[in-house]
Specification:
The chain has a domain of 88 residues: Bacterial OB-fold (OB fold (Dihydrolipoamide Acetyltransferase, E2P), Beta Barrel), CATH 2.40.50.200. The protein contains two helices and five strands, in the order H-H-E-E-E-E-E. By secondary structure, it is α+β, with helices and mostly antiparallel strands.
Length: 136
Amino acid sequence: MRNTASTWAVAAVLALTAAAASAQPAGYTGPSNAPKAAAQGAYAGPVNVPLMTVRQLLDAGRDDQPARLQGRIVSFEGNERYTFEDATGRITVEIDDEDFPAGQTVSAEHRVELLGEFDKGLRKTEFEVDRVTLLP
């Protein structure tokens, strides 16, 4: 009976260790390098969504308005929330792991383009990202 209990204890510790290893680190270093499911294809052609600055979006943006932003993701805030910055200001952005470029690491030094939708509510204002593209 004791061997069975210790076997289950070891299995539980290994499962917890594996789960912890795949969690996002507390400080922002970009998305996890853990293996993802098979990458899906994505549209890479021209986009007619207007390029805006953070200031323009915050000052005149409408709820659910599509937009593109160019700048840097400067910090990870937790729970899929990041701080994005351009020359005009900062905004909280929500980015799902699968919306980062497949097979590429994004850090605070990389310039990126975010394609998504402005979420302007009474209690929060953020940009919900559909796609992150690394800029040259």
